[in-house]
Structure to design on (398 residues):
């Protein structure tokens, strides 16, 4: 199989490499296009904990929307804690400010006993809507996200998948 | 040429191996290949890949908030280039596998395709002789079994004979593979064998007839 690859003309080899590069770059640009459309840095997230049960289970795939900053009480938002890069999905239970003033939010997990002040960064007692929140949940697909949970919990799976994808694209000419 | 064994049940492999062999064959016959169409595709494709890579690098280093506007621009540019790429492949290249000129200045371009569940190699040939400006275009086809053995080895001889016999410009460059009489029989089959093919003596008559015909065609070719 590799022999047939070595037999290719330089241009054909370049075309073959291009096919693989285009698969990767198109996937990336579709993701970025969705980011631009939803105005959110990560428009699709996976629920990692059970803190929002029974609304959302571990492994649910959530679709976010970040246009329109007037988030209301009862909406489920995804936010990043300052200094940590782990997105958390919880429900808004209080809002302060809004309108012309900057909007601040207090959140709580449906399944948690207390609100999120404990989770926030040191000295922070509320979320800044425009800085901390990645988006509001507008749709979800149950269970599908389990694939990514498996991939992050077993990193070798990720490597195996990438290698398999790369080989299949390079070796199979369409 | 393609000495490696392939799976004879994989239509893609049959087509790709044959496409490669066709290019090698024509290059060996001193056709000078023109790669301009493939080069345009490569240019469009690699430009879009570079745009995506730059977007990735910027996003990785500066983060989403800082790169928002430029990401939007890059996404639009990428979409346009991708559309152009697809258009080029489907509307301009159309399965082009060889384009080039022979020593006399005649232009030849060959596109190939296969249909699902049909192990037949379809070629669209377009040739322009040195003097004229309008190309003549025609289609030929042949089952892959003509030049692949049952266990997946490519055999060059029957493949080259097929091309040399059905494409004038290739036949002129490769006379020993241009079986004029065979082509003529394929085009207008004369049922000589069925009519007189019952005695052993008829076989020799037939063979000499074929010989004479092929000599005649070769002479004719040299004049042309």
């Amino acid at each position: 199989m590799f022999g047939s690859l070595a037999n290719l003309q330089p241009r054909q080899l370049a075309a073959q490499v291009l096919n693989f590069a285009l698969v990767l770059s198109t996937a990336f640009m579709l993701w970025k296009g969705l980011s631009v459309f939803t105005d959110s840095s990560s428009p699709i997230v996976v629920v990692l904990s059970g803190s929002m049960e029974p609304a959302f289970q571990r492994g649910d795939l959530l679709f976010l929307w970040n246009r329109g900053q007037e988030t209301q009480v009862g909406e489920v938002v995804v936010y990043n804690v300052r200094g940590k890069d782990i997105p958390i999905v919880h429900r808004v239970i209080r809002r302060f400010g809004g309108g012309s003033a900057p909007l601040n939010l207090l959140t709580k997990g449906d399944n948690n006993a207390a609100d999120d002040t404990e989770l926030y960064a040191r000295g922070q007692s509320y979320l800044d809507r425009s800085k901390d929140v990645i988006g509001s949940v507008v749709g979800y697909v149950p269970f599908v996200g389990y694939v990514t949970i498996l991939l992050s919990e077993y990193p070798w799976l990720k490597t195996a998948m990438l290698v398999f994808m790369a080989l299949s694209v390079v070796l199979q000419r369409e | 040429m393609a000495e490696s064994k392939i799976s004879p049940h994989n239509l893609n492999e049959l087509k790709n191996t044959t496409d490669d062999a066709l290019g090698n064959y024509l290059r060996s016959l001193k056709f000078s290949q023109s790669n301009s169409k493939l080069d345009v595709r490569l240019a469009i494709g690699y430009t879009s890949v570079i745009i995506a890579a730059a977007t990735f690098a910027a996003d990785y280093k500066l983060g989403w908030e800082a790169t928002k506007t430029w990401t939007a621009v890059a996404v639009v540019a990428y979409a346009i280039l991708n559309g152009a790429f697809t258009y080029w492949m489907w509307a301009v290249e159309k399965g082009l596998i060889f384009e080039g000129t022979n020593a006399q200045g005649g232009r030849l371009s060959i596109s190939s395709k296969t249909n699902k569940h049909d192990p037949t190699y379809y070629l669209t040939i377009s040739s322009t002789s040195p003097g004229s400006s309008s190309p003549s275009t025609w289609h030929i086809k042949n089952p892959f079994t003509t030049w692949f053995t049952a266990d997946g080895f490519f055999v060059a001889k029957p493949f080259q004979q097929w091309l040399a016999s059905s494409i004038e410009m290739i036949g002129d460059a490769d006379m020993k593979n241009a079986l004029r009489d065979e082509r003529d029989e394929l085009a207008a089959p004369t049922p000589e064998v069925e009519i007189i093919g019952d005695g052993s003596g008829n076989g020799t008559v037939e063979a000499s007839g074929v010989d004479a015909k092929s000599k005649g065609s070769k002479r004719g070719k040299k004049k042309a």
Observations:
- Chain B touches chain A through 35 residues (CB under 8 Å).
- The two ends of chain B are 31 Å apart (CA to CA).
- The first strand of chain B starts at residue 32 and ends at 33.
